[in-house]
Amino acid sequence: MHGIIPLWKPEGMTSHACVLKIRRLLKIKKAGHTGTLDPNVSGVLPVCVGEATKIVRYLQDSGKTYVATVTLGVATTTEDAEGEVVEEKKVERTISRGELLEVLRAHTGEIVQTPPMYSAVKVNGKRLYEYAREGIPVERPSRKVVIHELALLDDREEFSGNPLSFSIRVACGKGTYIRTLAVSIGEKLGYPAHMSALTRISAAGIHRDACLTFEEIETAVAEGRAEEILLPVEDVLSELPKYQIHDTLANRVKNGALLATPEHLQGEEGPVAVWWRGRVVAVYRKHSGRPGMLKPERVFAFDEIFNR
User: Fold this and answer.
1) With 70 as the cut, is the pLDDT of residue 307 above it?
2) Measured torsion, CA atoms of residues 195, 198, 201, 205, in degrees rounded to the nearest 10
3) Residue 157 maps to which CATH number?
4) Catalytic residue among 38, 61, 235, 247
5) How far apart are CA 228 and CA 184, in angstroms?
6) Is residue 140 within 8 Å of residue 123, measured between CB atoms?
7) How many other β-carbons are positioned within 10 Å of the β-carbon of residue 55?
8) Residue 172 and residue 126 in one domain
9) pTM (2 decimals)?
10) What is the pLDDT of residue 34?
C-alpha cells in the first residue's frame, strides 16, 4: 500500500498514537505523519504509508491553515488552555474592530517568533519541554516564520468582556506556533493572552472536507476498500516544479543517476518532482557541486509503484 491517508485527527490523541493506529488498522509497517498536532488539537493530519513515507519532509515544509481562538486577559505557562495561569489582567476597555484588524495586519507576512518553552524545539540536543518540566531556564532561539493570511472570523464591530475571546484563521508556513502568535496579538493589544482553542483545517493541500475519521477508515478496511481511501503521491506533490521524463531517462532515475537540468527548471533551487507515465517517480534537487545538474533526493520503488 502506497499513498496518503487524509486523517481527521481527534482530540485526545497524540500524532504518534494516530500513526500507530493507522499501522495496526492497515497491517503495515511503514507510516509517518507530516507535522505534529498537539493532543488537545483536532484537524487535518496527513499520514503517509509505504513508499509515500519518502515525501514526509516535503509535506512538513508545506503550508498549513488553522482556525484558532485567542483569549485576552489570561496568560498560561504553555500559551494554550492546558497550562497553568501565570498572569491575569482584567479587560476593562472595548477594543474596536479597526484596532484589532490593524494588529492582525501587523502580524501578517514575515515575522519573528520565539518558540514556547513547552515545545519540541531542540536546544543543545534537548527539547524545550524537557527543560520546562525540569524548571531549567534556557535561552530560546528566535526564528523567522511566514504568515500568509491572518483573518478575523468574528463580525463584531466592538469587542468587550472579561476574559475576551475572538476567532482567527491563520494560513502559515513551516514552524509557526499559533500559541505564540496568540500571545503576541495580546501583547499588541495590551493584555496577557493565550490560545484557547485550535483546529487545523488544511495541510499539504488536503482540506478538512477530504479527511476521514478513524471510524470511516475502520469501515473501509472492514469492507476491503483500504486502498481506495489512499490519496496518490501526485495529489500532494502537484505544486512542485515538474520534470517530465521519457522511458530512456526513467532507467537512469530508477538507479539514482544525476540528470541535466532542463531549461524550464534552470532557476529552481528547491525540490523538483520527476514524472514518468503519469506518476511521480522521484524528487530531485539542484546539485550544489555540479552546475547544470540535478541530483536525486528521493527515488520511489518503481516495481512496487507500477507492478501492483
Assistant:
1) no
2) 60
3) 3.30.2350.10
4) 38
5) 43
6) yes
7) 26
8) yes
9) 0.87
10) 83
